[in-house]
Amino acid sequence: TTRAVGLMMETVRDPAAFVAALEKAARRDIPIVAVKLARTAYGKTLALSHSGALAGNAAAYDALFDRYGVLRAEDIDEMVATLLLFGEGKRARAGGLAAVHDSGGERELGVDLADQLGVPYAQISPATTERLKKRLAFGLAPVNPVDFWATPHGYQDVLAECFDALLDDSDSALGMYFGNVVTGMPVYEGEAEVMAALAKRHAKPLAVASMFAGSDHGDYALRLGKQGVPVIYGAIPALKAARNLMRHRDFRLRAPMGEAPKPPAQALARWRPRLARGGALDEAESLAFLADMGIPVQPHRLAEGEDAALEAAGVLGYPVALKTARAGVLHKTESEGVVLDLADESALRAAFRDLSARLGPRVIVARMAPPGVETVLGVVADAQFGPLVMAGTGGVLIEVLKDVRFALAPFDAGHARAMIEGLKIMPLLAGVRGRAAADLASHAEALARLSGVAHALADVIAEIDVNPFLVGAGGCVALDALVVGKAG
Fold this sequence. Notes:
Layout: E1 5-9, H1 15-27, E2 32-36, H2 41-51, H3 58-68, E3 71-72, H4 76-86, E4 96-101, H5 104-117, H6 126-135, E5 146-147, H7 155-168, E6 172-179, H8 186-201, E7 206-210, H9 218-225, E8 231-233, H10 235-252, H11 265-276, E9 279-280, H12 283-292, E10 300-304, H13 306-316, E11 320-324, E12 338-342, H14 345-359, E13 362-367, E14 373-382, E15 386-393, H15 398-401, E16 404-408, H16 413-421, H17 426-430, H18 440-456, E17 461-472, E18 475-478, E19 481-485
Parallel strand pairs: 1-2, 2-3, 4-5, 4-6, 6-7, 7-8
Antiparallel strand pairs: 9-19, 10-13, 11-12, 11-13, 14-15, 14-17, 15-16, 17-18, 17-19
Helix pairs in contact: 4-10, 5-10, 6-7, 7-8, 13-14, 16-18
């Protein structure tokens, strides 16, 4: 008989049992709405002092919830509002929100809030527009959301027929009435009768939302809720609840997760002993590791000394990039250990002499990469839920923009593509101002392949950082990488 589950949670003390419960809920289509506490550093400190709970990695919970369709609520208001809607047992259909207001000004407020929260409205058909036009008073626009109120005369019939028209539309996922409902006010009591009758006629979710959460409508909400129409306190919780119903719908429509690409068995056997010793691989080793695992790497050569660097450039072809390969230098940009776009032998000699004087003669010479968008791929070992795979905006902006998404390993290319398309950098990848669109298929394949590597070597990988990972029209390629082993 369980219709929905609400969680207020600090941490998970038994990860395997928790994941099993999430899998069971997903199989049975029981929505889970969670408020995850202690996401900030100070919040984690309070959780530890309150219950001794280690709050865990917030990114890991994001990835876990995404995998199993758990709906994250920002606060208790959103959680309760969402549970009220799910508690009726109805599911959002295709399309967006169908909304009715009794105030033009509050309708404008509702539209602004919906836009801020990313709640789409139903795009009603011409036939629905005609039905509204025939019933609305002169001057009221036949649009969604609709402002139906002109006069108290016959208001119940106008509300019923307008809402019927919206709910009958094939692009309406669910319906909400927004007003400042107050217990005992004749107008709102009359509207409650209409909403209760609509709930019996329509299979789509239906709710009443008070634009002002502080209105006195406790008894009203109790009575209407018993008739199948939940009353939500406040426009923002109501809109977030509508968004959650649509997110749950979209989760149920996801294609089943396929297998991640499997790394070559020989490569796994070759690298496992090295990773099991722990510690960081240098850039040359890290790039060799990625290449062995089937992830594209920019052509490069390791060189010791000026002559060897010149020979490497001759093989690779100018222009080239020159990078220090000194042991222990993990972040080359901060050490001024990278020189780009060296066009000829003379430029390479000068750059090498400067670099070697400061950081030593061990260098990497790499062919200059074609134009593209700098992204980042990564892996982090989470103590509770295993390896997390990251995709995001890379280069020097990674810590400024913090545009990253995480997923539990392993996953297929379709899931990887969805991760990439959820990044803020996506408009650049899609092509802007005449730039060609990036090859998202190869980007997604590389990300899925990395997830397979992370899963296969979960016991010996502490961290992988591929930054920048350049994505362009002709494919994608790792320009720099850091792999850190995890000793047993």
